[in-house]
Write a structure and sequence with these properties.
2 strands, binds zinc ion, mainly alpha, 2 domains
Length: about 170
């Protein structure tokens, strides 16, 4: 009797531990997502500031009736925007991952990780670990290969095959 009770208690404790673990996982997921969203908002506001800065520089040039060489004079600002945009995109991908979602390879809509086909466009989703290899191969197949490029094609294919074997 004592034994049975003890086992029952153990099971109950085990169950409570599971619930506790799940709650902790969910909490950390929510915390991570909130952090990523906050970072994204910060980056978006930095981009707005840079737009403002660029606008100001351009307007001052206009007032002084001067021309502007974008590549020379606004390079730094434009590169900063590029960098921030990449950070925003990375955070978006991480949030998708946290929610066990991914982006369709064709139409870019959000879908569940375990879907084999996209419910919107029907594109077959390839396992993530193969994506790079398959995409590279797909691109290679799409490329029109002239006799001049044949040698290059062979080299690329060999490299890809080697990479696949290594994985
Ligand atoms: Zn799709």
């Amino acid at each position: 009797m004592v034994k049975i009770l003890a086992r029952g208690e153990n099971e109950k404790m085990g169950f409570l531990n599971d619930v506790g673990k799940k709650t902790a996982d969910t909490t950390s997921k929510i915390a991570k997502e909130a952090k990523l969203k906050l970072k994204t908002n910060e980056n978006k506001s930095k981009i707005s500031d840079l737009y403002e800065e660029i606008g100001k520089i351009v307007y001052e040039k206009y007032v002084r009736e001067e021309g502007i060489n974008i590549k020379e004079e606004l390079r730094e600002e434009c590169e900063k925007i590029d960098f921030l945009a990449i950070e925003i995109e990375k955070a978006r991908m991480e949030i998708l991952k946290l929610n066990q979602k991914r982006q369709c390879r064709k139409c870019n809509c959000e879908i569940q990780n375990n879907y084999v086909f996209c419910p919107r466009c029907g594109k077959k989703q390839i396992e993530e670990e193969n994506t790079c290899f398959d995409e590279a191969l797909e691109k290679l197949e799409e490329t029109e290969i002239t006799p001049k490029n044949k040698k290059k094609e062979k080299i690329v294919k060999e490299k890809l095959e080697k990479l696949e074997k290594e994985e």
